[in-house]
UniProtKB/TrEMBL annotation:
<dbReference type="InterPro" id="IPR036515">
    <property type="entry name" value="Transposase_17_sf"/>
</dbReference>
<dbReference type="GO" id="GO:0003677">
    <property type="term" value="F:DNA binding"/>
</dbReference>
<dbReference type="GO" id="GO:0004803">
    <property type="term" value="F:transposase activity"/>
</dbReference>
<feature type="domain" description="Transposase IS200-like">
    <location>
        <begin position="1"/>
        <end position="91"/>
    </location>
</feature>
<dbReference type="InterPro" id="IPR002686">
    <property type="entry name" value="Transposase_17"/>
</dbReference>
<dbReference type="Pfam" id="PF01797">
    <property type="entry name" value="Y1_Tnp"/>
</dbReference>
<dbReference type="GO" id="GO:0006313">
    <property type="term" value="P:DNA transposition"/>
</dbReference>
<protein>
    <recommendedName>
        <fullName>Transposase IS200-like domain-containing protein</fullName>
    </recommendedName>
</protein>
Amino acid sequence: MRTVCADFETELVEFNGEGEHVHLLVNFPPKVALSKLVNSLKGVSSRRMRQEFPDLVRHYYRANKLWSASYFAGSVGGAPLTVLRQYIEQQNRPG
């Protein structure tokens, strides 16, 4: 994920996830097309995960697809990074 972000001249600040989704905090300039960044992150991570974990085939979203086409993106321009990092870190903790 960091390599893809670096290729887009963006910064992956925080990363965490659960069984069915991931949370990324990415700092990026307005010139970056968010949809292209997300598609690249999904494509690269899918290829690498399929290579490293061939048994993931039973968890594919659809035929030969690890990720769905959907994503959510929100702007958090005024929020302190410490609060955002804490939120992402706590996403895979129970209750």
